[in-house]
Amino acid sequence: MIRSLLTLSFLGCFFVLYGQNNFQRVYNVDPDHHTKNQASNQLNTGTFVSLDLLEDTLRNAANDLMITLLDKKGGAASRSQNQGARAFRMTSLSRNHIFLPQKSSITSVNNNFIFTALLNEENKLYKVFGSLRSDGDLNWFHRYLPSTGTNTTTSPFILDNFNNKIFLGTNHQIINRPFVSIALANESGLLEWSKVFRVTKDSISGPLLRNILTDLNITNDTTIAISGYVSQDSTRLPFLLECDTLGNPVLSKIYFDTIDTYFITENVETVKLVDSTFVIAGSVDSLNSVFDPFGFVAKTDTSGNVVWARKLNFGTNTMTKLQHLTVGQDNKIVVTGIVRDSVDKPFYNWMAKLSLAGNLEFVKTYPKIKVDDSIPGSLVSAMDSGYALFSTVDDGDNYLSFIKTNVNGESTCEVDSLLLTISPMSLTTTNLFWATQDTAKVEKSDVKTSEYVLNLPIITLERDPVYCPKDTINHLFDATVEDAVFYEWSNGIKGDSASMIRVMDTEQYSVIATLLNDKECFTLCDTAQLRRYATPIAQISYSLGDFCTTGLVTLTVNSFAEAGLKSINWSTGATSSQIKVGTAGIYSVTVTDQCDEKFSASYDLMRMPEIVTSVYITENFSAICQTGNGVLEAIDNSFGLLPKKFEWNNGGNTQIINIAQGGNYCVTVTDICGNTASSCINIDDAKFRRVQITNVIVDETNKCVNGTVTAEVFYTGDANILWSTGETSKSIVIGVNKGPVTVTVSDKICPDNKDSEIVPIPVINFLQSLEIDFDRPVECINDKILLTVKFDESVLSLTNANIIWSTGETTRSIQITDNGTYSVTVTEKNCAINTKSASLNFEFPLPTASIVPDSSSLCSNGTILLTLILNDDNAPINNPQILWSTGATTSSILISQNGTYSVTVSDPQCLKNKTSTQFEFSFPDARLRFASAFFPATRDTVTLEYNATFGPYLGNTLCPESIKDYEFYIYNRWGQNVFTTNKIEEEWNGNLKNETDKENSLESYIWAVKYSLFGYEYKDHGEVILLRP
Hints:
- By secondary structure, the chain is an all-beta fold.
- Among the domains are: about 1-5 and about 465-530; about 535-605, Immunoglobulin-like; about 615-690, Immunoglobulin-like (Sandwich); about 690-760, Immunoglobulin-like (Sandwich); about 770-840; about 850-920, Immunoglobulin-like (Sandwich); about 930-1025, Immunoglobulin-like, CATH 2.60.40.
- It contains four helices and 80 strands.
- A hairpin with a 5-residue loop joins strand 23 (about 320-325) and strand 24.
- The longest helix is centred in the first third of the chain and has 13 residues, at about 1-15.
């Protein structure tokens, strides 16, 4: 055990505790006071802070509060190397005050300690909280009170901070029942809001409910996690309440053991994990079981529903209490508490780690220290991944215990022989409902503070003994300390009696002492450097001193002699630290220290200072293209008289100035002794390479001659020219309507120095179209047509236009009487280039006529109706004159003879406006046609469909009613008449005359016909063959 502790502590001493520290220490303040731990924390600096009660042993009352600062090894965290840990003691200024033990909190906000406590003043209980500066001075001290009711509960008063805001949680007694009270206070302790919570009857039926808060913390999700228990009769059920930062409930659950009906819980704590699930833990007692109390741990989902639950106890005949819960940096669950082996044995601390699945990873017990079971102490997840467990020792006196472990719960004083039993627990949950109201207030109270020192054992080696370089070293280091059982030195010497060593050489020596007693296991260490004085060093510095009045400069030797300065000797014979010289040269000095060690230095004063008597100005325009500025520099003949003052006539006050324009520049130089010199220079403005367009002239002389103008640019400076047309000459010729154009002039040396201008170019609105028009329909008056030239008068006004026709006329309109080609040219009067021509091949428009025959009367009276159809859309005719070739003057005539018929239509107002047409007509062929054979029907054969009888064929052009005086005769070959008729529709059926039943034989017959048609008489004859099938 000792060797293991020594090895770990030795590394901690020599490597400034970069790894984990583990130890077990106790701190007895003084024989007249008991020390009872209320809370603890670790600051961002790594320092641990403990909040404790100082209880008067004679009065058995806690008069004071104390805040103690301890370093990462449990040693003194103080500003000076003394034998004490820094602490601050607070005493209430109220009469008859007593601080009572309760679960409290302490934290740090902007380097101020914020803490809570329970104070009895004049037999009244007050929850108090306050703020102490890091130097121990009080900021404020307030009572936290309910707006109504009393504050008689001794329940925990917990706080946590977020973004420099203080969240408070406790219980207030209202109508003889404790209710949960939470509040938000600012850094000055003033409330921003407060709320009281009470469980409603919707949650649990039965007698009145008591709600006790036992824990409060700010979660990773920036919510407030609150836990405690709901008490009803003899049953206490753990609850979880999550609120937002305004105190509004977000989630609330109450937990039941489904097997053990009477579930008694105390000191419930909860932690919200990074995955937004919860762990809840506490101590349990059961009225249904005969065994002693045990601990429980439950893991929930994000809604607070139980995922798993475990019972923790150290077996039968033991009493196990779970007091604290935290989550380590490895995201594992760590719980601590107290245990005793039997009723007559004392309590001692234990620690266990569980995985997020509820499996045990280690359990450690710390039996060397007897702890007070009525004071819960506190647990901190340390910055080095270990754990810090604070508790109160109970061995007749009460004092502070500090167990610091590594990540595996090892403190060098632990044992792991006691078996922790972990078993499943039948835990279930239901929703818990709360009613809230805003109620709380603060009242100012006061305490006085004072700094207090806890006497702690330390090792102090003689601080840094130093020897002269030539001295013989023989030094004794003494590290003797009470309760030390082992010493180990950095030079390898070690043992239980090796408290002193003698050394003969210069180096750093360290010692670690291991201390063991019936309560503690820890180490002390110290380091001292045994060394020799460094040899002296010296350096000569130069200054003007009073040169301006004496002409002498000052040389000063700056030396460091760790062993102490003995003498100074200059090459001039001087022995002081300063000498004044008036000539250039090499000066040396030798410094001797109290060890008679020497060091020499020299200084080469190559040139004495010289006052200013003349100055000249140089100019530099090498960067003119980049900056646009020239540079002037004043060069004077002075040396070593700095700083010098420069005054330019343009306001400049430095040796080098920038100028942006030409002109006369003057400067006056004044050295540190007040001597002056002046000079001037004239700068030509052309050196600034500025170019500027002064004018652009556009010459419009040829604008209307050839459609071009000449643009010429005028500018200052030596420049290149570039037009937007690509031309680089000073002037360009450009066509009208080709603008605008841009001209740019740029300096030939500094092309970025340029000027541009947009040049407008004149515009000619050229005529785009020209046409000759006449009115339609044509107005023909006295055989004349009006032609008119049309053009866009918004481009060229009529008054500004010259018009000339091919007829020589110059008016806008002309009259013509003949067909032909007519042309016209329009020219702008003052701009001959703006001209346009058009021509028209004109023919007088004529109407068209046609004759339409109507033969509907041909059969009735042998006539045809001819009708004139006139189309005069192009040349309307009013009251047209009609003349037919028959002499008729009507629009229609009847004809009864073949021939050619013509008609002429004329306009009496316009003789040119006339038209003629003709129609040739032939009456249909009037001859009747006859077949050369026919096929009469017989009884024995099938009659052919056609030519069954014999008679004339009229065709489609003749109608029967138009045939007059019709006679038709048929004869056989002997001249005998076999058929006669005067009805054209009656035909011969092949039988003998008047003998319908007698058929004629097959033979040839002669036929003859006579008739009149359309006034003409026709006669015809022929032969027909009668055929029988």
